[in-house]
Amino acid sequence: MTPGRRSSTFTRLLRHGFTDPSAAERLLDSAELSAVRDDPVLLEALGATADPDLALHGLVRLLEAQPGPTAHRELLDTLIAAKPLRDRLLGVLGASAALADHLARHPSDWQALVTYEPRDLHRGVAEFERGLAEATDPVSLRVAYRRCLLSIAARDVCGTIDVAETAAELADLATATLRAALALAAAAAPDDAAACRLAVIAMGKCGGHELNYVSDVDVIFVAEAAEGTDEAKALRSATALASHMMRICSETTVEGSIWPVDANLRPEGRNGPLVRTLSSHLAYYQRWAKTWEFQALLKARPVAGDADLGQAYVDALAPLVWQAAERENFVTDVQKMRRRVVENIPAAEVERELKLGPGGLRDVEFAVQLLQLVHGRTDPSLRSGSTLDALQALAAGGYVGREDGARLDEAYRFLRSMEHRIQLYRLRRTHLVPEAEADRRRLGRSLGLRTDPAAGLNREWKRHTGVVRRLHEKLFYRPLLDAVAQLAPGEARLSPVAARERMVALGYADPAAALRHLEALASGVTRKAAIQRTLLPVMLGWFADSADPDAGLLNFRKVSDALGKTPWYLRLLRDEGAAAENLARVLSAGRLAPDLLMRAPEAVALLGDGDGGGLAPRGRGPLEQEILAAAGRAENAEQGVTAARGVRRRELFRTAAADIIGSYGTETSPVEADQGALVDRVGAAVSDLTAATLAGTLRAVVRAGWGDTLPTRFAIIGMGRFGGHELGYGSDADVLFVHEPREGVAEQEAAAAANKVVAEMRRLLQLPSADPPLLIDADLRPEGKSGPLVRTLKSYEAYYRRWSLVWESQALLRAEPVAGDEDLGRRFIELIDPLRYPPRGLADDAVREIRRLKARMESERLPRGADPKLHTKLGPGGLSDVEWTVQLFQLRHGHQVPGLRTTRTREALSAVRAAGLLSPEETEILDEAWVLATRVRNAVMLVRGRAGDTFPTEPRELAAVGRYLGYGAGHAGDMLDAYRRTARRARAVVDELFYADGN
Prior knowledge:
Layout lengths: L7 H8 L5 H8 L11 H8 L4 H14 L3 H13 L1 H13 L1 H9 L12 H4 L3 H8 L5 H20 L5 H26 L1 H6 E7 L1 H4 L9 E9 L5 H20 L10 E2 L12 E2 L1 H10 L3 H7 L3 E5 L1 H15 L8 H14 L17 H15 L11 H10 L5 H25 L10 H10 L6 H24 L3 H7 L9 H10 L5 H12 L4 H18 L4 H15 L5 H7 L3 H9 L4 H8 L20 H14 L3 H28 L10 H32 L5 E7 L1 H4 L9 E9 L5 H19 L10 E2 L12 E3 H10 L3 H7 L3 E5 L1 H15 L7 H18 L17 H15 L11 H10 L5 H25 L10 H10 L7 H23 L5
Parallel strand pairs: 2-3, 2-4, 7-8, 7-9
Antiparallel strand pairs: 1-2, 1-5, 6-7, 6-10
Helix pairs in contact: 1-2, 2-4, 4-6, 4-7, 5-6, 6-10, 9-11, 10-11, 11-14, 15-17, 19-20, 19-23, 20-21, 21-23, 22-23, 23-27, 25-26, 26-28, 27-28, 27-29, 27-30, 28-30, 29-30, 30-33, 31-33, 32-33, 32-34, 33-34, 34-36, 34-43, 38-39, 41-42, 41-45, 42-43, 43-44, 43-45
């Protein structure tokens, strides 16, 4: 091989997903695989596994363990010839190091994967009992158990069975194993077996037919004396049998253990007798049992031992289970138990806890079980031990919305699949998502995420836990359940105690104040209060999904107070699906959107599905038409501009609301995956709105001072972010003013009129009022603040011809007419095009001057005390870095490359790539940094209500910025790290491109 060149095999291995191609190449060259190393079928199959490196290593170990050449050749021949076997075997080897160890110890067990018959697709208890039939002791039972487990895992990783079928088969295998272990215990003590009737009742996930790969198998034992046997002696015999059965499954041997058998769900837990008679069980549950014990009995299912006795146990206790919801404080007890589970998770693990953490599996299971116990009293269709079956029944019965049910089903299946694959790797009992990148990569690939699997896994995991968290809070904490459970007469209502508990659990910082808001909103007997009592349980959960739920609830009270007497407001929230959640998101996301809404609360109608126009941004044409019409109806310029500013305020609210909802996501509208699209929509909407506002203001001023015709043609040229369609919520309007005297009008008169127009526009747009001001900044004009505010087209031409500096050519790259005389605006653009797209590109001294200016800006304009690495505008990898780099390309190549003649940064960046001047990787890095920095600036304005170029320091504000950017509670540090990382990568590209001589 040529030095420095990688082999073709090395490259192919990389392409097929190997992370250590050098080691893989050595394994493929080993004697065990020499006969098939070049067979493309093998490499394709390895590449399809969760971890090709692990699969290949396990295959070599299995081949090495074969007892002789014949067995070795048989395995290889079957592997290459039989696709089902190949997919199953390599799939297992790539997903489970523990089962690879088992195959290395028992090298003939691979043949258990060869069969591919219809009955093999969905195996049940009978098939597993046959698989365990030859076990004569605990060691051989473990070997047979692993062999059966191998067949389940193989069909699981190949997708032959889904997650629910896998869990059911694991429960069936557990049932068969418990029966085999009980048979071994009975064979070892025949006298004890003869003295009693013993039934094993599966609880928990085994009882619910939804077991994990590695889990405690929860059981309860019930026994009766055999005919002619004393009850006390029978119970001693049954206890000995039960204890021996537990040891057979739980104890560690040379083949490891199967799983612990846990009998702690029995009456009195560890302090109670291991085995009771049926009458003793019944007496305990009738008198002493706690609420959680009835919840646990939902899963009870007889699985081993005396079948008649087991069924009698279930039949006797079932009526007590379905009466549990009538107990005093039933719902509150269940709520507290769930909160205790979360509180007991170590802080360092809570964010990785797949089962018990917020938005985890237990949230789905608790919510479903609570609804089952409340409504299953009168609806037998809900009485299932399986979470997914019960959820389907709840949705079918209308107890859960069909869409909510479908989302919970999807999320639960995904989270259970994650749990299965995590446990399958080492066959260890764990519910923690691994931290190592390699482990997350394998986990992601095992779930079908092949493009950046670790990042894809994290994204999907967080998406699904977010869904569970929102729906769990909506269903599980819903105070209406209190009324349903207690069968209280009259109207469903929020009890003060339940409301306070719920708010504490959901993160309200001041529950007392929040409760006062609730009392003000929901107390009384009016129809308005009745609708609020229906809305508030759900609204509180939505507020809680923000960084500042207290502010959300306070703002909701303010809006409700302002609109409470209007007939449409509460009807909108109650009847239009998206309106209530949209409002909750907007009111709890920061200060800007609520402030805009409070100035004109009727804008809440925009949040509905009906005639309010929705949240889709309106184009510049309709906006300008509305504003010009309003200005035309006004009696004077001030009234006309007031009308224009009112439209601007409403449309700013529309844009901010759509941005917040797209960033947070709702139950009906997922989070916008394309962050660049969110930035582009905000930039275009605010820029169009600003242009329309300037056009209306210009019309109002001209009409008030001169009638229909100004003595001079007048145009406004957008500059900077305005000209680039990239305005943020807090941006000023950077502009140039150009005029041209009409025929017969003296230049002095024309100039006086143009200057008067500008002065009046600036005054009217900044008058104190309920509407936010629009600041006009003309500092990019020739000679800056020292130059005249308005120039004629000829004056611009003379200046640019004689005095223009390179920074002005750069600034003109963003110039675009936005209002006024269209023909004059077009001619201004024709004038400046040769300046901003010079036919011969840039001279070296001009390039050096641009670099000097940028270095000076970075050193002089960064605020004192600001962290440069977190400054979105002037910091390394920030907006300035990306924009100056793109603009340098435009100045150098814009004349030859038409695609570069655009005022928009992202569009120009794409054109640089399309022209071959920038690699796809460099383009992506710069685009990602620019989008993120812009998103941060928008977030700061939304959260604080005032513009800023760096992250806020106040914890709640920082958390709110994080929530807007997709980071959950407690992850502000992750957000800052991600920003620094993104900016650092961008700065490295900028250093190479902006300061390199060849660009």
